[in-house]
Structures are given as C-alpha cells and as structure tokens.
Amino acid sequence: GENVEQHPSTLSVQEGDSAVIKCTYSDSASNYFPWYKQELGKRPQLIIDIRSNVGEKKDQRIAVTLNKTAKHFSLHITETQPEDSAVYFCAASNRGSTLGRLYFGRGTQLTVWP
Amino acid sequence: EAQVTQNPRYLITVTGKKLTVTCSQNMNHEYMSWYRQDPGLGLRQIYYSMNVEVTDKGDVPEGYKVSRKEKRNFPLILESPSPNQTSLYFCASSSPYDGSPYNEQFFGPGTRLTVL
C-alpha cells in the first residue's frame, strides 16, 4: 500500500515568517493530496488539496506544490500568524484503486511565536 | 447541515466492559472509516467500509469490530477494551462515486476514550 512520510515533526517559526512542511509518497498512482489542519481538541479540517494534474495551488497565504516525478509535495504558509499554530497532516489517495482510503503522514506540530 | 456526528464525545470506562461508539453521516456517503489518533503516530486507520455490509481492516484493527447495516451509520465496537485502546477516535466519510476522481474526506468531532 501507500506510505506517506512527513517532515518535520515539529516546526517553530516567528510570526510573519514562512513555514514549509514536506511529504513524500510511495505509490506513483496516487492522484490526490490533501492537507488537514487540526487545532487542539478539534477534528482535522481540510485546508487545501492538490490534484495530480497540477503542480501548484494557492489559497491566500497557503500554497501547495507537487512534484510527481520525485513523489513529494509540500505545504507553504506565508506571513504566519499565531492562529496558524496547529498540527498539520498531509495525505495521499488514489481513488481509482483505493476508492475512499486516505494515507496520512504522522503530522507536523507548527508553533507560531508572536 | 452536512455533517458527521459521533457519540459519545468523551468516555471513561474500565478494562473489559464492552462499549460502542456511534458514527452517523447525513451526506449519503458510501465510504466510512474509523481512525485512532495517538501522539506522534498521526491518524491510523482501524476499519473502513466501502458500502453497506462491506467492511475491511485498516492498519490497526486488533481489538475492534465494526458493522455497516445502514448507509448512514458505522459504529465502532470494543468488546473487551484494554488500556492500550485509550486514544482519540475519529470517524470520517466520503463519496468515492460522486463522479469526481478525487476524494475529500469529512471528519466527525472525535471521541476521547479512556480505558482504566
């Protein structure tokens, strides 16, 4: 099955700086790569996703890039704010072969210091 | 409102006392799944279901049972809970058959279980 690795496991940045979280996947057939944000005590919430037919997607301060050849994708957060502090999970999926199953990375605890 | 609900939200129990955590979704999703979340280990899938009466093991199924008698409900059953099942549990659902080749998964609010 798919194996998703996520780095770093913890990340501390100063408010206003950028943060980058990286993930690699093993199954070249994976075609959907969502990112979830989980605030303390809350459920994971989808914040952005990227599909295998594009290389980059942006949504305000958040962007995700995908390199299919190298099988890695990254989350970029610019102008970080204290409310960005949370655990971020990447995931990979191939609906064609695994239907609904998402394979998650282990998460990155992001702390933004004011 | 489209949502996934879980009950109870918090549960403290003792070793060996059977319990059920319910999960229900109102989005007519075919796919439902249970995860457990432990510090440093991320979200690990316990069981999943592709549709009514179709269930399969995820990565950590030992000590758990599930059933899918109705499309909207996917209960998680711990027949003899043990302390190593103390964890935060999430139910999730999605629709693999909505015509999109992609797969957004919706999570329930979580159930924090403590087994003494």
Helical proportion of chain B? under 10%
Number of alpha- plus pi-helical segments of chain B: 0
Largest interchain contact: A-B, 24 and 25 residues
Q: How much strand of chain B?
A: over 45%
Low-confidence stretches of chain B: none
**Helix/strand-derived class of chain B?**
mainly beta
> What is the overall shape of chain A?
globular
Distance between the termini of chain B: 36 Å
Structural class of chain A, by secondary structure, is: mainly beta
Share of helix among residues of chain A? under 10%
Structural notes for this entry:
The complex is a heterodimer of chains A (114) and B (116). Chain A has 114 residues and is mainly β. Chain A has one helix and eleven strands. In chain A, the strands form two sheets. In chain A, strands 2, 4, 5, 9, 10 and 11 form a six-stranded mixed beta sheet that branches. Chain A is globular. The mean pLDDT of chain A is 91. By secondary structure, chain B is mainly β. Chain B has strands at 4-7, 10-13, 19-25, 31-38, 42-51, 54-57, 65-66, 76-78, 87-94, 106-107, 111-115. In chain B, a hairpin with a 2-residue loop joins strand 5 and strand 6. The chains are: A mainly beta (114), B mainly beta (116). The A-B interface holds A 6, 9, 31-32, 34, 42-46, 49, 51, 89, 93, 95-96, 99-102, 104-107 and B 30-31, 33, 40-45, 48, 50, 90, 94-96, 100-105, 107-110.
